[in-house]
Write a structure and sequence with these properties.
Blueprint: H1 2-18, E1 21-22, E2 31-33, E3 38-41, E4 43-44, E5 50-56, E6 64-65, E7 70-73, E8 86-97, E9 102-112, E10 119-120, E11 126-128, E12 134-137, E13 143-144, E14 151-155, E15 165-166, E16 171-174, H2 178-186, E17 189-197, E18 203-212, E19 220-224, E20 229-233, E21 238-245, E22 253-260, E23 270-272, E24 277-282, E25 295-306, E26 311-321, H3 326-381, H4 404-418, H5 422-449, H6 453-456, H7 460-472, H8 477-480, H9 494-500
Parallel strand pairs: 2-9, 11-18, 20-26
Antiparallel strand pairs: 1-4, 3-7, 5-8, 6-7, 8-9, 10-13, 12-16, 14-17, 15-16, 17-18, 19-21, 21-24, 22-25, 23-24, 25-26
Helix pairs in contact: 3-4, 3-5, 3-7, 5-7
């Protein structure tokens, strides 16, 4: 018996070590920023070398992972939205051993948004005329932010000629004097300025060349993107940037705001970063569109008013389409996923307890029948036990008793009546093991197949869940006569579920 126990312990230890995948040991190794590069080689803590490695859940991430365990990832700058700041990516690493075993581990990578400074291309020349108010709007197609952040212009005062001004919107205004204008004939003026993104304040240096000519730009209110109609789904972000320019300078702007045709759009959606640059950020919830409708339209009117009460406005129509609440759907699917495995584990634990009870009953029945058989044999061989006392000499006393055959048969019948049948107990133990093994295999497959959120969104999820229920409610359970007073399952923790089903996912 001791020899068998040692063999089982060694096998268990070997299997436990086979489950360990070796990842980088540095704290926070799985947290990185956009553009950063992460490289490592995945290894397995095992005496047997793995035959191959593979990963799941790396679609659209740009992760490169080969069968030798070489991991390389340099996340692109478009994986995390500037408004989200960070995003989690759940992937599964798997290692296949040459002896058929495999190790499987879920890792969550946290990707942080990295702000990049604005990009300024070579600007076209700004032409001015003498003794006139000249204005030049730096074209938006030459100055952009790679992250889509709002940008503002900041002049370098030492570079600005006397009487000139560069607004935070990128509007250059100048009324050159006669001497200044003539100086441009021989040598065009080059001024430097800074472009900052908001709200991170990352900056880039730009240059504007000014030469003799004439150019006027009318005042305007610019909405970016410039489409007059926007179409989004529920829970999508509507992000519009509003730029206001005034030929009289930024100080002439009195008010910038918006009016919406629907009261469900809060006033806090409009944020004024600077006096000439604002931003509209709004996320319609899943309850914005009525259940009976497929979409809903609203009108946004952005306006700017100067000190003379001159008004400029732009209208944008937003169409919001009804959308499925994936977050709520994922939450409900996970509850179904976990509850199914809780039911399976509850029955497995109950079957394990019942197996111990049946094993003890079998040993007791086997031992009891053996003892009764010995007693029957002794009675059957006895020919005389009771002395008969006579009035004559004691040396002539004769003892005798009969009917031994009848007593032996009666004792054999009582063995089956008073003790439990070994055959019935063995049959129950067989059924108990059969149901338990079937449930363990089905539960492992279910936990592994639907460990990721994306897999639980498929139509097969409910089908496979329905296939698991008949195994949990096996009709042969009636044969086992399990105590009905015990609860069918309890609220197991994720750690307890993972102990029974190693591939169970806690999210």
């Amino acid at each position: 018996m001791n020899r068998i126990f040692i063999i089982v312990l060694v096998c268990f230890t070997h299997l436990a070590l086979a489950q360990e995948l070796i990842f980088p040991y540095q704290y926070g190794w799985n947290i990185l920023s956009e553009g950063d590069e992460l490289k490592f080689k995945l290894e397995v803590k095992d005496s047997i070398a793995p035959s191959m490695f593979r990963m799941e859940g790396i679609e659209s991430t740009g992760i490169r992972f080969d069968t030798l365990g070489n991991f390389s990832w340099q996340p692109s700058f478009d994986l995390v939205d500037r408004l989200e700041k960070q995003k989690d990516f759940n992937v599964i690493f798997e290692a296949y051993m040459t002896d058929g075993r495999k190790a499987r581990t879920t890792i969550t990578f946290t990707l942080l948004h990295k702000n990049r400074p604005p990009v300024i291309e070579e600007l076209p020349i700004a032409y001015v005329k003498m003794a006139s108010s000249n204005s030049f709007q730096i074209p938006a197609e030459y100055v952009r932010d790679p992250d889509g952040d709002p940008i503002t212009f900041r002049p370098i005062q030492e570079q600005i000629p006397q009487g000139a001004n560069l607004s935070s919107l990128g509007l250059f205004t100048w009324t050159p004097s006669k001497n200044q204008f003539y100086a441009l004939r021989d040598k065009p003026l080059v001024i430097e300025f800074m472009v900052e993104d908001q709200p991170a304040k990352a900056s880039a240096l730009g240059r504007l060349k000014i030469a003799q000519t004439q150019m006027d730009l009318p005042p305007e209110l610019l909405v970016v993107p410039g489409d007059s109609a926007v179409s989004v789904s529920e829970n999508d972000v509507v992000n519009l940037k509003i730029y206001v320019s005034d030929p009289n300078g930024d100080d002439n702007i009195a008010q910038v705001g918006f009016i919406c045709s629907d009261v469900q759009v809060p006033e806090t959606s409009f944020k004024e970063n600077t006096k000439v640059q604002s931003e509209f950020i709004w996320r319609p919830g899943y309850d914005f569109v009525e259940e009976a409708d497929s979409s809903k339209k609203i009108n946004l009117t952005f306006f700017a008013i100067d000190n003379a009460n001159n008004r400029t406005q732009r209208k944008v129509t937003v169409t919001v389409h009804d959308a499925e609440n994936l977050q709520e759907k994922d939450r409900l699917s996970y509850i179904k996923y976990k509850n199914s495995l809780i039911q399976a584990k509850g029955l497995i634990d109950l079957l394990d307890e019942n197996h111990e009870i049946l094993s003890k009953a079998y040993k007791k029945a086997k031992k009891g029948k053996k003892n009764r058989a010995l007693i029957n044999a002794s009675l059957g061989a006895t020919t005389g036990l009771s002395p008969v006392v006579l009035a004559t000499d004691q040396s002539k006393v004769v003892s005798a008793i009969g009917g031994t055959t009848v007593l032996t048969l009666g004792t054999l019948e009582a063995t089956e009546l008073l003790g439990k049948s070994k055959t019935d107990i063995l049959e129950k133990m067989k059924v108990n093991v059969e149901i338990r093994n079937q449930l363990q295999v089905a539960g492992d497959n279910f936990a592994r197949k639907y460990a990721l959120k994306s897999s639980r969104r498929s139509s097969e999820f409910d089908i496979d869940r329905d296939k698991l229920l008949p195994i949990i409610n096996n009709q042969k359970l009636v044969i086992l006569e399990i105590d009905a007073s015990k609860p069918s399952y309890k609220d197991y923790s994720n750690k307890e579920l993972k102990k029974t089903f190693p591939d169970f996912s806690g999210e």
